[in-house]
Amino acid sequence: MGCGNIAVSDFPETMRKQEKEVEDVDMDDRESRNAASSVDFNCQYRPEEFAVDFLEMTNYTPESKINYKKARQIYLKQFTFLRAEDVDHTYQYMFLNRLESKQLSVEQIEQEQLSCLQFIKFGYIFYRFYQVLQDPRLVLFYYLDDNFNSHVNFKQLKQLLRIHFGIDVKNAQLIFQRVKAKNGLINQANFNKLLAILTASKTYDPLSSYFMQERDQEHMPENFDRAIQPENQDEIFSDISTKRQEYEQAKKFIEDEKRKQKAKKKRDAQFETE
Questions:
Q1: Would you list the domain boundaries of the chain?
Q2: pLDDT tens digit string along 138-151?
Q3: What is the number of alpha carbons within 13 Å of residue 5 lying toward its C-beta?
Q4: Pick from 58, 30, 38: which is nearest to 183 by CA?
Q5: pTM, 2 dp
Q6: Which of 30, 60, 15 minimizes the C-alpha distance to 264?
Q7: What is the helix, strand, coil percentage profile of the chain, to 5?
């Protein structure tokens, strides 16, 4: 379903330019490997459901984008604890940085367009909103958690952290050398170590104030992860197997739709030239 590694095109135009300018301070040039073999057995997020919603809104053209307002409506319907400002603040937190921390107006945000990949990624962030409210910086980690298993590409994470916090090359080397990646990936425990280092170095995050508003009980997020109990391990392993199968089926369906659309455009072009 297009949930591959993040690319520059996944960012808004202003952020893409910054991403291209970021110098690579990765000390390990080994090729990152896919983390699909690591499974978070507690995670109940189903990306295929959001992929289906996206396809229905775009008339089954996965390369299209959807209006931000439509995406927000779906998030509010899917996660009833969310408020409209929660969605807006999360989007701003992800796509602004400390050097450009001027808050966008609601009208400006509503002009944005989301790709299928972005739509699914933000769905996962809202699934994890219980954790996000405890530390908003987790938004950056969850956005890169493409396999929904609490493992992210370390090189991409370093680039994103440098953009978000405006970290220069020298300080980036000092900060990131404290954490070692395994096969190009780090887990959430290691990310928490990075957060502790950033806190100790007094790296200020003004955008985190977006999430500091008081919430009533109706809008308190749930912790959707469930602990594995001995009596239902077989059921959960079955759920994981089913989830992976649904994920692959949805991904194949979207890829097939893309091929059909390309073939149709090619036929139409040939017809026009005849």
A1: 12-232
A2: 999 999 999 999 99
A3: 15
A4: 30
A5: 0.72
A6: 60
A7: 60, 5, 35
